[in-house]
Write a structure and sequence with these properties.
The longest helix has 13 residues, at 101-113. The strands form two sheets. Strands 3-4-5-6-7-8 form a six-stranded mixed beta sheet. A two-stranded antiparallel sheet has the order 1-2. It has helices at residues 31-39, 72-82, 101-113, 126-135, and strands spanning 6-12, 18-24, 43-46, 50-55, 60-67, 89-99, 119-122, 143-146. 28% of the residues are buried. The chain contains four helices and eight strands; from the N terminus they run ββαβββαβαβαβ. The protein is an alpha/beta fold and 152 residues long.
Length: 152
């Protein structure tokens, strides 16, 4: 399944309106499709190895499949979407079957650059937890490996 994803912008209304970027999968064109991807569980990135969807409760992203050098740039863009708002960002990684160093580095980079809130990793596979501990990345400020389980 090939995906022709691209960045789209739209203006959000509210007290302090601002431009929002969303990495979209499947060539979404309408504002309704973009809005759906932005707010509720729709796929924001997909390739033949990985699917990334937006979560609402808690606010964040769900990753399923494999992260490797072929999609690590798309992962970084997806993480940028999750980091658009201040506060804690929750990542459900319970359905990751593989993640190479480029994927782990994307997570750490996001945590290191956060001004506020934490990057909370839910369901991180044990092998990845071990890598994070051995490298010292589990001690990065604003990064929390949660043992509370993945989102429901």
């Amino acid at each position: 399944m090939g995906v022709a994803g691209y960045w789209r912008n739209y203006w959000t209304a509210g007290v302090a309106g601002r431009w929002r970027d969303y990495w979209t999968a499947g060539g979404r064109n309408s504002i309704e499709e973009l809005f759906g991807a932005a707010i509720g569980g729709e796929t924001i990135y997909a390739d033949k190895h990985l699917v990334v969807t937006r979560t609402l409760e808690p606010v964040g992203l769900h990753f399923a499949g494999e992260i490797d050098v072929t999609n690590s740039q798309a992962v970084a863009k997806s993480l940028g979407i999750a980091d658009a708002d201040a506060g804690d960002v929750h990542l459900d990684l319970s359905e990751l079957s593989f993640c190479d160093i480029s994927g782990i580095r994307s997570l750490v980079d996001l945590a290191e650059t956060r001004a506020t809130g934490r990057l909370m990793l839910h369901g991180l596979p044990e092998l990845l937890q071990t890598v994070m501990k051995v490298t010292g990345w589990s001690e990065v400020p604003n990064l929390l490996i949660c043992n509370c389980g993945a989102r429901q």
